[in-house]
Structure formats: structure tokens, C-alpha cells
Amino acid sequence: MRHLSVAAAGFLGIALVAGCASGGTRTATAGSPTPVPPAAPPPAAVAQDTTREGGLGSQYPSSYRRHPNPPVLIRNATIMTAAGQEIQGGSILFRDGKIVSVGTGKWVTPGVIDVHSHLGVYAAPGTFAESDGNEATQPVTAEVWAEHSFWPQDPQIPLAIAGGVTTIQALPGSANLIGGRSAILKLIPARSVQDMKFPGAHYGLKMACGENPKRVYGQRGGPSTRMGNMAGYRNAFIAAQSYRQKWDKWNKDHQGDPPERNLRNETLAEVLRGNIYVQNHCYRADEMMQMLDLGHEFGFKIRAFHHAVEAYKIADVLAREGTASAVWADWWGFKEEAMDGIHENAALLQQAGARADIHSDDPGGIQRLNQEAAKAMYYGRRAGIPVTRDQALRWFTVNAAWVLGIDSVVGTLEAGKMADVVLWSADPLSVYAQALQVYNDGWLVYDRNDPAHQPKSDFSLGQP
Amino acid sequence: MIAFLLAQTIAITGGTVYPVSGPKIENATVLIRDGRIAAVGTNVVVPAGATRVDASRKWLTPGLIDGAGVMGLREIGMVQGTNEYTERGNDIAAAFNVLEGINPASTLIAVNRMEGVTTTLAVPGSLGVPPSGGLIWGQAALIDLDGATIEAMRIKSPAAMVANLSEAAKDAGGGSRAAVAQRLRRLLNDAREYATRRADYRRRQIQDLSASAADLEALQPVLRGDLPLVVVANRRSDIETALRIAREYKLHLILGGAAEGWMIPNEIAAAGVPVLVEPLDNIPSYDALGIRYENAALLGKGGVKVALMETATENTRDLRQQAGNAVANGMTWDQALRAVTLTPAEIFGVADRYGSIETGKVANLVVWSGDPFEFSTAVEHVFIRGKEIPLRSRQTELLERYRTLPPKY
Is A156 in contact with B283 (Cβ distance < 8 A)? Predict the structure, then answer.
């Protein structure tokens, strides 16, 4: 395990103080005129370094560097921390010094995180030329990495930034049983995906249940059934188990030549070692139960079920297993396995003690995850399921960060966290709210009122 | 018997009424009798025996009207057997009317009407991004989202003919937008010729025409200007082509999609052409690189009559969210409410009966706990043709079954 120096260098201290003017504060530092120094030292490396696996050298490292920025203080705003507090008339400081003048009635939240995006891999304008999300040539392609498809000039990226998104998991599509590695990315203007890679984040492994693999492979060699899907996952992990054992032994004793590398098994072995998180597209409750059993058979955890429209049917099991559910607020009905989607899914998961997350899987939806979470919260409340505003905020911030294994670094507004911050025009749980400013690691990457801070992709230059 | 059942008097009292046709009325009573609005105002006498609905502190609006969708025509998008909205493989499907394909038992109806959408235009194709293919999709029908039969749901059929000049129509023109436009003109010319030479056509004493007699017949009300022609067009030049052809043939044009309409609001307004737009579309494609959130607002500011649509029909209920986002992006709130009520009623020629809360109009009404566009707002009552709609769907049944685990089977 190796520490990534860029990870530690990437942190800006966030300090929260309650505003002096409006009172009604709810923090221990109420009335304090000066920022509080970070209570805890910044976390060191985010996660185990997954670029050094199976005893091999560093592969495809992140070249992300924090953009040099002046310090920022946002004052007199309602700060929704996603850490249990909502501070009226509060201030937020990135480093100390420069003030961004903010009127009353503005709101601040952590940067929005989408754990399920195909930005960059299914880029606009959506032609075959940019269709790089599914290596739909065989049902198990654990060897492919989404970052090798990712196009940083996707014109959808600036749109998502304008919606307050600061981090995404860019995933391979769901044609395959095992679709490949995800990329955890800072959503910033950049020339290369390497410059966007979230330092030290765990890779995800995209897996898919149900209709999609059946549909794609049913007429070309299979799987054509759900039982065929299961056999496909099991065969892949059986091979990976044996591969892992060989490498683990060799790493220990270095006897003889090293085993031959196999890209597919290299990734799956990292799943078995717990270094790569399983991100599993799965709609139906009964199939999620099958996938949990698969994890038990091979000794890995499923970090999150994605889409999970029937997660509410097994919320108790998901709570017990510690598997999150990344869901939509209201998508349903576009395919048979999505027929049982209900508005209260996230709220019921929350109530059962399971970890809920609101995701997009959509270049439109990613621009308004705050709205989708608001929908899910209010429908839950109307059904008599208690959901706090802080919990709803977590659905698209810190819970998402947990799904990606970066919740010690981003996802809340707490001292020591990376300064991924959104300033909103109104309560972000209102349909009328818009992101006014978006800071990514302290860098002002979007300002609704300043064209100098409204990034445009290369693609969009000179276009209507 | 049906008339007897409908002969019910309901008084919704104490709410703030947004009639859309005029300013809001506080503490008003809306009286419903025989499926129609019998009275609206602050001095309405509630007859003895009327069912009272207390709407104090609530908001009343007309039932929302979705500008275009495939309600009743598509149960599950990926299950072909449940899709009825296109006559596949027919580029010129003018004679195709969707009405008999509508499934009044569709589960989408209950899911969406309980959220305040009471009326939709059922279209023979999808106006979503990307739109369906084909040049002439066929005839759309305006329906209320209640009724055991198609007849009971029907408001107006056909309500519009639908044509397509977007990129998706290119296959119908051999791969060129110019050829698509030329094919549309040839079709309209042939329809004109057909109308004057029906006898020759029957005796086969006429050159070959570019469509069947049924299709050419179906286009006659369009040529007369009696039946509006919705033209799906997103790129500015395609919108201009639609305006040009409508001018040449004196058609009653409605633009559908109109993603780049914001570039030429004055031209569209000057032509007196209304538009059906989806405010939350902003993903660029080669069909509309200039697509943007502000489209609805900028068209409205330019004097264009704007109606909104939610093309993901299973979530037609998100028409509220579309409207709220139109406001966030510059439309006035009043305009946005109009764009989901009275304006579509006007565009589809039923404003004498639909779209506002006025005496004599069909009693399609929604009682909201607050601003209809806000997520915090609940739908409290829905009336369609004066009948209160139960706020139940298979989704509410799923919720009740799984509310506590293990479920109640």
C-alpha cells in the first residue's frame, strides 16, 4: 500500500461558523467571529491504493492537482452540512481571507455526487463515434476500464457542473454481466481523464443483473436467462479466485517466475481482496437477493445496488448486509424489471436503516439530483415516513461519497473536508433553486452570474 | 343511467382558485354539477345536498394538460406488445389514428392522474429526444384520464395531424432534410390533386400519387386548415422549413419540440404558431446543438404561445417539475401555469370546454396543498369531469404492501 501524495495535497480546510448577524445558530461556535480551525487533521490517503495490485507497479495513476485558488469565505447563508446540522445565517470559509459577498436567502451544500453516470463514456452529441460505454462483445469484460473511454470534452460535463455536481462515478454500461472498472472523477474542466481522477478513490466494478445482459447476448451465445447470468458471474469469480491465490502466493514467496498477468482476473482479484467495490445494476428484489448470495459465495461485499427500484421490498436485508441502494426518485415502467418502482423507495430504505442514495444514470437527471432527492423526501413524508432535510441531502452527497469510498474526504461540510461546495439561489430542495456557484476543491468552476466561470467543452465552441 | 350518476353536485369551498383565465380568487367556492363547473366565486350559494370539499388554505387549479405523450399507447417501452403508438414501417401514416389503440386500463393512467394531470394529447409517435422516425405519424387524440372505455376518455379525435421534420425523419427522405421537405410538399400537392379528382383516382385515370387514398383523404382537413398539423422540428433550419411549408400551404401549424425555437421567437410569434416544448431538455445532439433550458421562457417572452409536455409518459406527472423548472429558467409562474392548462386547451381547440376554472367548463380540477410546481406540495383532490378520482394506483398498493417488512401477502 502506498500513500498518494496528491491526495493529501488536495485538501482545503473547510471551517464552518455561525453567522453573527442573524442568530438562531445551532453550532458550538455560535457567535464566534472567527473561523474555527479544522477540528481534525485532513484524512491521509482516501483509500487503499488500487493502482498497485497483484504486486505490480503503478498503473494509470491520477494526475489530478488542485487548481490554485484564492481563499473563499461565503457569509450569511444557510449551510446544509449533510452532517446533521443546518446553520442559518452561517458562513463558510475555504482557507481564510477573501470574502465572497452573499446576500441572505442563499443556501450552501456539499458538492453533489452522482454514483451512476455515463458522462464521458456516452458523450453528447450521442453518435456512434462517442458511444464508448459498453464493450458489448462478450458478457464478461472485467478487463476494460471506463477511464479509457472517458472523453473530457463531453459537452454534458459543463451542464452537470452547473447543476452543482463535483464528483461522479463514470460507469461502463449494463450490457455485460461484468462491464469493467468505473472511474471516480472530479468533475472539472480538464484535458485528460487522468487530471480528473479522484486521488486514491476505490475503483468500482460494474456488474449488471437481469434484462440487459439477457437481451444483448440471448441471440449470440448467451446468457439468455437469469440463471445463465448467475452462472456467468460465478465462472468469472471462480477463475479469479484461482488467479488471486497464485499471485498472493508469489507476492509472498517470490518463488519462480511470476504468474502470467490476466487483465480480467486482475480486476476481479482486486474485488476479492476488497480493494475494488462492486457497483451492481440490479432492479428486482429477488435478483438482489441472488447477488448477495453470490457475494457470500466468493467473499466480497456488494457496495451498492444501482437503480434498485425494488430495494424497498428488501430494505431490512440491505440494512443488515450494509449494501447501499442508489435509486431514482420516480423512474419506473420503461422496462419490465422497472415496473414496481415507487416514490417512497429511498424513504423506506432510510427508515429501515439501509443506506439510500439518489443517482441519475442520465445526463439530464444529473443536473438536478437535488430536485430528485426533494421529490423522494416529500413523497416519503407524505406517506408518513420521517425523512429529515439533512437525510435527503445525504442522499446525493455523503451517502454517495460512501458508495465510492471517499466519504472521509468529501460529502459533508465539515472541517478538514475537501472544499467541494455549492451555493444555491434558494432552498436546494425547492424546484426553483439553481446552483449559483460551484467550488471543486476550492476552485470556482461555475458561477451563474459570471461568464468567465462558465466552462464550455471544446465541442461547444463555435456551436449555436 | 350514466347521466344520473353524473348528476352530482360538489362544492369545493374556501380555497384560493387560480382560474388561469383571470386573477386568482381567495376564499372562493367552485360548484360542480353534472360534470361541469356551475359557479365560481366568493358569493356562490352552496345548494343543500351538495357534497362539500373543504379546500381552506389549499390551491385550486384546472387539471393539468400534457402537451404530448403516448398515454394509453405505451405500457412498457421495452415490451413491443404493449406499444401501440406507431404504425411502424409506414412513413406516411396520415390515416392512422391512435384512438383505438388506447388502453383505458393502462396502469400509467392512475399513476399519473393522481398527481394532477387530467388530460393528455395521445400522439402517434414520441416527441422525446430523439423523436420517432417517419414523415407523417398520423392523428393524435385528446383524452381525459378517466373512463372505462375509449369513448369515455375521448375529448377530441383527431385533435391534430402529426408530421416530422427532425433528423429522425431523414430516412423518410432518402437521407436528406431537403428530400424530406420535398416529399412533404409532394404529398400535400398530391392530396390537393386527389381532392379535386377523386373520380379519376377511382378510375385510375391519374398519375401515381405518393400515398394511399386513405392517407390523402386524411390530409384534407389539414389542407383546409381545419385540423392543426403538429410538426416535430428541433433545429432552427427545420423550424424555418416548417414555417415555410405552413405558409405555402396555409396550414394551421403547431411546432413540436422546437428546441432551437428560442433563436427565432419573433418569427414563430409573427406566424401565429404555437409550440409544444419540454423545458428540461438541454442535451445537445446534431438535431439541436443549441438546445437549452431557457427555451420555454425565451419563446414565451418573444410572444409565442407555449404549452409544455413531459415526453416520458410513465412520468407524465413530472409535468409539474417541467413547469417549475421553466419558471426557474425565466418563465413567469402565471405563464407556466397557463402553459399546462389553458394554452394547450387553446392549441388543441378545446378552450371552450377545458383549461380554466370558469362557469360552464368541464370540471377537471385539482386541489393542491400549495404551489403545484413545488415538490413539497401534495395533491389532495382530483376531479375529472366532475368526478372525484381516488388517489390510488398500483404504486400506492405496492407501498402499502411493503410499508412494513415482511410484507403482507
Answer: yes
